[in-house]
Amino acid sequence: MNTVDVREAVTRAHHEEWARVVAALTRRFGDLDIAEEASAEAFATAVERWRADGVPPNPGAWLTTTANRKAIDRLRRESKRGDKHKEAQMLYDSTPSEPPGAIDDDRLRLIFICCHPALAMEARVALTLRMVGGLTVPEIARAFLVRGTTMEQRITRAKAKIKAARIPYRMPSAGDLPARVSGVLAVLFLVFNEGYLASGPDTDPVRQDLTTEAIRLTRLIRALLPQDGEVAGLLALMLLIEARRPARVSSSGELISLAEQDRGAWDAELIAEGHRLVRERLAAAAAGVAPGRYQVLAAINAVHTSARDIRDTDWSQVLALYDQLVRLDPSPIIALNRAIAVAELDGPEVALAIVDGLAEVLAGYHAYHATRADLLRRLGRSRQSRAAYDRAIELAGNTGETAYLTRRRDQLR
């Protein structure tokens, strides 16, 4: 095989198998550093070996076997300086010390390790994006709007804390689940978002492997906690966003905005399931159970996916839901999204005043400049709109989004 074909095969295997390989090694060796480094070495070895031998029939099994050998080699080297008894236990005792939980899934177990309450919330999310999502440190740093070195240090400290605290590789008990699940949901939502709009410049605009895995794991958590409203809300949110995926990218690889999408291409089955979950949560709210952040976000997406045309969107309902969401999550990104609804009801000038008030906190966020560019365009301020588009293009990492923003900028007079 030529180099390009091999690299494509390895990239595809990385998307599909990274979490499985890391989870399998973590289960066997009980060390996140060993699991991550051995897995990375296995993928690097695949680039060389697959070029000579061809891609194996089962890439995941090949990568897991190779990563296990890499880990054992490392432990043997380190055993000269460490505890040989511990080494022998790791090398030959590959059975889990904990009995299987209600759902025996290695990747879900790994998420709960990474989301242990001993870690700060940001560290939990970042570590899981790296270990389970397979995202690179720069991709995670962009998701958090921080520098790559800062994120690298955060992940390193989180792994060291897990090792020092001897956090076991197992599902938490039923009594511990509710306290642990909020961090897990935050992680899964960020994994899903990276798939929905990949931040890297050299990846597909939409990474279905990540969105599919995030939905799969959220379904497992819903089976564990069927009465948890936020789990149901997150699942509904993911389904309603994923339903639009077939219409989100053009044949040339450019992202297509919600207003321009062919709604007939949306997945009706996913929309129906998402709407069903939203109605369940609305019934709970009517009974006095206050909705959480994910439930409100799901309701917003239910309004969008209920409209047959962008002109049929009930923007007053969208704005009312954003007003509710701001009280739950007064983040600048939520305020930015709320401004888009304000523009539809009160006009772009009112919305622009809101957006300009977010300049200091969102100056490095490409969507801030893209939103501002669109509002300026609608106000006829083409020169300022062009400058805002230029800044958004400079900050956007996704090639499909860059293509969309470039086209919108070039349409200006």
Model description:
- The protein is mainly α.
- The protein has three domains: 4-94, Rna Polymerase Sigma Factor, Chain: A, CATH 1.10.1740; 102-204, no CATH class; 314-413, Tetratricopeptide repeat domain (Serine Threonine Protein Phosphatase 5, Tetratricopeptide repeat), CATH 1.25.40.
- It contains 20 helices and no strands.
- α19 (382-395) packs antiparallel against α20 (399-410).
- The longest helix is centred in the first third of the chain and has 27 residues, at 3-29.
- The radius of gyration is 23 Å and the shape is globular.
- Residues 87-102 have low confidence and may be disordered.
The assigned structural class equals mainly alpha
Q: Hey, roughly how much beta strand do the residues contain?
A: under 5%
How many individual helices?
20
- Cα-atom radius of gyration: 23 Å
Query: End-to-end span in angstroms?
Result: 49 Å
Provide the helix percentage. Answer: over 70%
Which whole number gives the mean pLDDT? 87
Number of domains: 3
Strand and helix layout:
Layout: H1 3-29, H2 32-53, H3 59-79, H4 84-92, H5 106-114, H6 121-131, H7 137-144, H8 148-165, H9 177-196, H10 208-224, H11 229-242, H12 268-286, H13 293-306, H14 315-328, H15 332-346, H16 348-356, H17 359-362, H18 366-378, H19 382-395, H20 399-410
Helix pairs in contact: 1-2, 1-3, 1-5, 2-3, 3-4, 6-8, 6-9, 7-8, 9-10, 9-11, 10-11, 11-12, 11-13, 12-13, 13-14, 14-15, 15-16, 16-18, 18-19, 19-20
Protein name: RNA polymerase sigma factor
Region (Disordered): 78-98
Biased composition (Basic and acidic residues): 78-88
